[in-house]
């Protein structure tokens, strides 16, 4: 049986909450809450029971169980990484809701999200496959964050247009009912058949203020890639490619030994897996740097020397030689020729295109 996993973004959000709570309540012994180690890669995940254990520890030391509501109430799309930025570029609340339904498992595989139409209303439903008490905190966190995200996405004064008909929880209240009503601003019921938010169909037609079809198209590819990787539909070469790009962005060009260590395999096993896909590590590094270089030359205003340093070239001459090998022209010439397409909008290649 496969282990149920959740996004490590939970740890980041809960950690931020603990820092803020420690400032407000220095009397609490929050230093006793042990946070799981998280990776710099956005693709890494944690077993559900690790996060549930963290929830239990926070509830014990913060002395209340409704902190999920508080975290969700102050959520920002960027807290959800690529997934949050994708929501920001949807055209309507309806499109954003459908994205959550389709890819909600990226956040928590124990959750199943659905939209159900009943007359003039739509029910946003969240089912948890975990029977542990800690899952109740996570349910409250998600429903609270859904409402906060909707208010943020429509923006400004229009946030008051996000009017809920009712919110329902399967569990009993974890705090005074007034806290729930203050957050959701509607009737809140407990011990119900489903965890759900009930809204008018008209609410889903609300436009999102920062919508960008071009950006959405690019981000949806990244979200789908994360989903494929989570469901083991991504080749090993693609996984190595993703790791190399993320590593370059934070640390520099990794060695083959760094990659082998990341995947918890020996160097010989790394080479064997890549050989099975007719790949080698040098080729992958070259392709990743090629695609990143082309994207950065066209899509950023960085000095060419800065791009060379960022991609780990020993000097600018080595970068120029490599760029000529890739494109037959210099970086400066490529920037002049490809800065804009006919519509005046920059188009950038996906770094991972060679491994699609």
Please explain how this structure is put together:
- The chain is an alpha+beta fold.
- The protein has two domains: 201 residues, H-NOX domain (Alpha-Beta Complex), CATH 3.90.1520; 121 residues, Homeodomain-like (Arc Repressor Mutant, subunit A), CATH 1.10.10.
- It is 51% helix and 9% strand.
- It contains 15 helices and seven strands.
- It has a five-stranded mixed sheet.
- A hairpin with a 2-residue loop joins strand 3 and strand 4.
- It is globular, with a radius of gyration of 23 Å.
- The C terminus is likely disordered.
In DSSP terms (H or I, runs of 4 or more residues), the helix count works out at: 15
Poorly predicted ranges:
341-356
Give the termini distance in whole angstroms.
29 Å
What is the CATH C-level name of the largest domain? Alpha Beta
The radius of gyration over CA amounts to 23 Å
CATH architecture descriptor text of the largest domain: Alpha-Beta Complex
Number of strands: 7
For the largest beta-sheet, the strand count, sense and barrel status come to: 5 strands, mixed
Q: What is the mean predicted local confidence, pLDDT?
A: 88
Which class do the helix and strand fractions yield? alpha+beta
Strand order within the widest beta sheet: 3-4-7-5-6
């Amino acid at each position: 049986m496969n282990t149920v996993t959740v996004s490590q973004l939970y740890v980041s959000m809960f950690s931020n909450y603990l820092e803020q709570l420690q400032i407000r309540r220095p009397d609490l012994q929050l230093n006793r809450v042990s946070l799981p180690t998280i990776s710099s890669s956005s693709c890494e995940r944690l077993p559900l029971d690790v996060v549930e254990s963290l929830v239990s520890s926070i509830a014990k030391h913060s002395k209340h169980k409704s902190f999920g509501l508080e975290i969700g109430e102050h959520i920002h799309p960027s807290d959800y990484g690529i997934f949050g930025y994708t929501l920001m570029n949807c055209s309507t609340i309806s499109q954003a809701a459908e994205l959550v339904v389709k890819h909600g498992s990226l956040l928590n595989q124990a959750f199943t999200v659905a939209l159900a139409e009943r007359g003039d209303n739509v029910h946003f439903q969240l089912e948890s496959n975990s029977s542990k008490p800690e899952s109740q905190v996570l349910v409250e966190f998600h429903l609270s964050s859904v409402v906060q995200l909707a208010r943020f996405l429509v923006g400004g004064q229009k946030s008051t247009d996000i009017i809920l008909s009712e919110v329902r929880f399967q569990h009993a209240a974890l705090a005074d009912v007034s806290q729930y009503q203050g957050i959701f601003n509607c009737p809140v019921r407990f011990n119900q058949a489903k965890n759900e938010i009930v809204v008018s169909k008209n609410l889903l037609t609300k436009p999102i203020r920062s919508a960008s079809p071009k950006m959405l198209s690019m981000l949806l590819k990244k979200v789908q890639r994360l989903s494929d990787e989570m469901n083991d539909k991504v080749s090993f070469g693609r996984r190595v490619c993703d790791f190399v790009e993320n590593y370059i962005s934070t640390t520099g060009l990794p060695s083959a030994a760094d990659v082998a260590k990341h995947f918890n395999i020996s160097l010989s096993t790394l080479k064997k897996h890549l050989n099975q896909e007719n790949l080698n590590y040098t080729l992958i590094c070259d392709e990743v740097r090629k695609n990143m270089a082309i994207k950065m030359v066209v899509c950023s205003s960085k000095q060419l020397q800065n791009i060379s340093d960022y991609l780990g070239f020993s000097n600018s001459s080595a970068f120029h030689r490599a760029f000529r090998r890739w494109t037959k022209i210099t970086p400066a010439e490529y920037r002049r020729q490809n800065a804009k397409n006919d519509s005046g909008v920059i188009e950038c290649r996906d770094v991972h295109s060679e491994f699609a």
